[in-house]
Amino acid sequence: MVLVWFRRDLRALDHTALKAALDSGQPVVACFIATPEQWREHHMAPMQADLIARRLACLNEELESLNIPFLYKEVPSFSDCTDVISGWAETLEATSVMANIHYEVNERELDT
């Protein structure tokens, strides 16, 4: 089983990590972790948070049409995400976790 972690790119179509997971031939589960407290600390505009929420609803529909389950959780900060992903991966007995690359400096630290 492959766990695909959606972060900034909230599209099922043309999503590199999702395509790689599907190409693996293994079952796929998708997930997203929201960090609204951290978003506020980083001065994310309420309009952007609303856009993310609306896009997640669309993503869920897209994934449903592909028979891909979608997990969602809210945590206080970005640093909490790794524990959530690790927990989901263990519970699902995932053989791998895939995500698109972050290109911003602070976000790249999450990938290492």
From TrEMBL:
What molecular function terms (GO) are annotated for this protein?
deoxyribodipyrimidine photo-lyase activity; DNA binding; FAD binding
SUPFAM superfamilies per the UniProt record, alphabetical: Cryptochrome/photolyase, N-terminal domain (SSF52425)
Going by the UniProt record, its keywords in alphabetical order are: Lyase
- Where does the Photolyase/cryptochrome alpha/beta domain lie? 1-112
Q: Biological process (GO) annotations?
A: response to light stimulus
Listed name of the protein: Deoxyribodipyrimidine photo-lyase
Name residues in a coiled coil. none
Q: What Pfam families would the database entry show?
A: DNA_photolyase
Q: Which residues cross the membrane?
A: none
